[in-house]
Amino acid sequence: MPADLPAAESPADLPFEQRSTRSQVARLRRVAERALEAYPVDTARLRLLLHGYNTTFRVDTTDGRTFALRLNVNSRRADEHLAAEAAWLSALAADPIVGERISVPAPVPTRDGDLRTTVWSDDLGRQLPALLMSWLPGRDLGDPDPEGARALGAAMATLHDHVCRWALPAGASLPDVDAPIDEMAAVVAADRSVTTAEQRAVFAAVHDRVGGLIAQLRADPSHPSAPIHADLHGENVKWLRKRIAVFDFDDACVGTTVHDLAISLYYLRDDDPIEQAVLDGYASVRPLPDYEQEHLEAVIAARNLVLAGDVLSITTADIRAIAPDYLARSATKLQAYLDTGRYRHTLD
């Protein structure tokens, strides 16, 4: 939907989460315009790129430059988490070894030299963090072919290599990768508007199983925790002339390399050759972690549990509309995981 279209008529006091997508975007566009006042740019055009978990606009300036502005609409990242994300992106963009292999967006400083800013939203009743970043050319990788999948695995390994020679600066920190599992399981357990009692029982059983298995993984000293992207899939990478660019570090957190692999494989599950291409690409840069398959499957299943909670708690109109169907399908897939020990999207 073009961001330039006028907002649909809605009562002035209608809660943000009950507004149409068009109305939500129109209101967030005004927030974005105010956020850009903090940056040394003269905006010529502001166009919607994505209105999903967060909302991102393309910013074209009067001097011919292009940027991406992200508003953290649903993300509740603390300031120290945003500081860590911006610091990691800046370090990656400046690292020559990384630059030989992949591209990442570089945060743009505000007029005051900060790598992030905040702007008030009357609709949401809180400050929204905003980050302006350099533009990444190319198309979204989407569903990768074997070549793209290998590049995705190699990009992940490049990020893991980088954190071995880099440390978070003082005052910056990242949340733990497993924290959303308990949080989103509680969201699902409390729901009475979308889920059935039978579905909630499935989610609770999955929470219990994956919690124990992931605890085993985290207790293994051969799997240390470090910063990871934690959302590396085809919609969060660009592909241009066989070069990959990684963006959307909003989910960056502290976890094991197995977590990062499993989260990526969640989106590719049911395509074994493509999964293997990701692993092969990773191994072309650094050795694969030595993991137990049941631990990998637990993290993959946990990803579905977390996303189920996200769908229930998000304000974005289009995502709220799919909640009943998404939760029902998730319960079916997670029940199959409980029965077989393997998570799949396609069930016979």
Might you state the CATH topology name of the largest domain? Aminoglycoside 3'-phosphotransferase, Chain: A, domain 2
Radius of gyration: 20 Å
Number of strands: 11
CATH architecture of the largest domain: Alpha-Beta Complex
CATH class of the largest domain: Alpha Beta
Largest sheet: 5 strands, antiparallel
Euclidean distance between termini CA atoms: 35 Å
Helix proportion: 40-55%
Instruction: Write down the overall geometry.
Output: globular
Strand content: 15-25%
What is the N-to-C succession of helices and strands? HEEEHHEEEEHHHEEEEHHHHH
CATH superfamily of the largest domain: Aminoglycoside phosphotransferase (APH), C-terminal lobe
Overall number of structural domains: 2
Descriptive overview:
- It is a single chain.
- With 348 residues, the chain is an alpha+beta fold.
- It folds into two domains: 16-135, Phosphorylase Kinase, domain 1, CATH 3.30.200.20; 146-340, Aminoglycoside phosphotransferase (APH), C-terminal lobe (Aminoglycoside 3'-phosphotransferase, Chain: A, domain 2).
- The protein is built from eleven helices and eleven strands.
- It has helices at residues 21-36, 79-94, 96-101, 146-163, 179-190, 197-219, 257-266, 272-283, 293-313, 317-321, 323-340; strands at residues 43-51, 55-61, 66-71, 102-103, 117-121, 126-134, 139-140, 226-228, 237-240, 243-246, 253-255.
- The strands form three sheets. The chain has a five-stranded antiparallel sheet, sandwiched between helices. The chain has a four-stranded mixed sheet with strand order 4-10-9-7.
- β9 and β10 (243-246) form a beta hairpin.
- The chain is globular and about 55 Å long.
- Belongs to the pseudomonas-type ThrB family.
- One of its GO terms (molecular function) is homoserine kinase activity.
- Residues 52-283 form the Aminoglycoside phosphotransferase domain.
- Keywords: Kinase, Transferase.
- Pfam families: APH (PF01636).
